[in-house]
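subagent[fold] <- orchestrator: predict structure for attached chain, return tokens only, no commentary.
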Amino acid sequence: MFFGEFEYKIDEKGRVPIPPKFRRELGKEGVVLTPAVEKCINAYPLSEWKKLATTLTAGPVPPNKLRRLNRAIFATAFSLGIDGQGRIALPIPLRQYAEIVSEVVIAGVNNYFELWNKVLWEEEKAISQEQAWQIIESLERHQ
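subagent[fold] -> orchestrator:
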């Protein structure tokens, strides 16, 4: 399980450290990075990526839409190993998409984690925290 929030600087080669406790969760398999719906990067352990892939290809989606979905998801994904110093090299297309330049926030979100531009993360965090309480209250009313 991934949780917590961590801030790092990106080095001149585009590498970013993975939080030590996240490294333990990832093991030797490495990580799969994809652009997220929000302007960030999703990072999946290989086991979670395989579950997601199975879910995406087994759904009740017409074949033409499934092909488009697969292109959008799999063609933009990157499988990366973690180097001996616990870092990954963020691919340039993903850094550009997420507007990550020199600083990155790594946020754990249960079975995967996200990499954010620091300013965009602060905005998203404020919205998420406000809406989380609204969602929790609506769940409590339905019990």
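orchestrator: received. Logging for downstream: The domain at 5-118 is CATH 3.40.1550.20 (Chemotaxis protein chec). Strands lie at 5-9, 15-17, 31-35, 41-45, 78-80, 87-89, 103-108, 113-116.
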